[in-house]
Design brief:
3 helices; alpha+beta
Length: 135
């Protein structure tokens, strides 16, 4: 179990403390919803969690296969769905691989990306396409 302690700071801002390490992060509501927008929003953190989870899973597989993925880049574009209840509607992930791979290796990495725990934890109605770009 990992505990995250969150304190509301006022003005739609929160501070979260990671129990095991004491590391902190701050969130703001976006300007569009009356926040300051000076930090990640909570839904931005979901997009960041998806991208970093995929990076971790793919890099772990590469490590086991003795493939160096230093320089891999991942972008996640988040789109909100406005109705009936505001929620994340789409998370488009683009992974730029730094090296050439065989077709078999590509299939392994692409399968692994879709099995990251964050991807598996999100609502099934959120569109989550993942695109790999190879040199």
């Amino acid at each position: 179990m990992v505990q995250i302690d969150i304190s509301y700071q006022g003005e739609l801002r929160c501070q979260a403390v990671h129990g095991p390490t004491g590391q902190t992060l701050t969130t703001d509501a976006p300007v569009a919803t009356r926040g300051k927008g000076e930090h990640f929003s909570p839904t931005d953190l979901v997009a960041a969690a998806l991208g970093t989870c995929i990076a971790t899973i793919v890099a772990g597989l590469a490590d086991r296969e003795n493939i160096d993925l230093a320089g891999m880049k991942i972008t996640v574009a988040k789109e909100m769905a406005p109705a009936p209840q505001r929620h994340i509607g789409k998370l488009v992930t683009r992974i730029t691989m730094p090296c050439s791979l065989t077709e078999q290796q590509k299939a392994k990495f692409e399968r692994a990306a879709h099995l990251c725990p964050v991807h598996e934890s999100l609502r099934p109605d959120i569109e989550m396409p993942i695109e790999f770009i190879y040199p």
